[in-house]
Design a protein that fits this description.
It comes from Falsiruegeria mediterranea M17. The protein is built from 4 helices and 7 strands. With about 180 residues, it is an alpha+beta fold. The protein has a 7-stranded antiparallel beta sheet with strand order 1-7-6-5-4-3-2, covered by helices on one side. Strand 6 (about 120-130) and strand 7 form a beta hairpin. Helix 1 crosses helix 3.
Length: about 180
């Protein structure tokens, strides 16, 4: 009986420590990747300023070709919205809407993953000589949920590779034209 009490007490102490430490972890999950495209910003911008255009270079749609996509709002720019649904766990379901669009410079979107939370994604375009450096960023507020804060530590590992793949796809697509 003493052994069971000790094991339970140790378990409670470990869980309490993990919860306490979680409040010292970052309150945001941040992912950012960049690539230089050998083309001017006005050649890159249309591919990030339209949810429909992202189909051609998205790193996630190849995981589940059966993903259901629905678009609403204008075809480009502010208000352009994508809703997607997939049974594949690495694709999931959600919506993404363009909430800011500065021609040839910036596109900011708001993502809603339903119960999994919300996030902001950005495409920042910087002219570099004859090319354009495209930085794809992601930021999500984790709140006070201890599990979310621990998961936030892994977000770069989970999403960073996909961002690199997507940017490589974008580069190839733009440079082919």
């Amino acid at each position: 009986m003493k052994l069971i009490k000790r094991v339970l007490l140790t378990l409670v102490v470990v869980i309490a420590a993990l919860v306490a430490v979680s409040y010292l972890l970052p309150g945001q999950a941040v992912v950012s990747r960049s690539i230089t495209v050998n083309a001017p910003a006005d050649a890159v911008f249309p591919h990030v300023n339209s949810m429909q255009a992202t189909e051609a270079w998205s790193p996630w749609l190849s995981r589940d070709p059966e993903t259901k996509l629905t678009y609403s709002g204008p075809e480009t720019g502010l208000g352009n919205t994508l809703s997607w649904a997939s049974d594949h766990p690495q694709v999931g379901a959600g919506t993404q809407e363009i909430v800011e669009s500065v021609e040839n410079q910036l596109v900011r979107t708001e993502l809603d993953f339903g119960p999994m939370g919300t996030a902001t994604a950005t495409f920042d375009l910087q002219t570099e000589g004859a090319g354009t450096t495209v930085t794809w960023g992601f930021r999500s507020e984790l709140g006070m949920n201890p599990i979310s804060r621990w998961m936030g530590l892994m977000m770069d590992d989970w999403v960073g590779g996909d961002y690199e793949t997507g940017l490589a796809n974008l580069k190839k697509l733009v440079e082919m034209k």
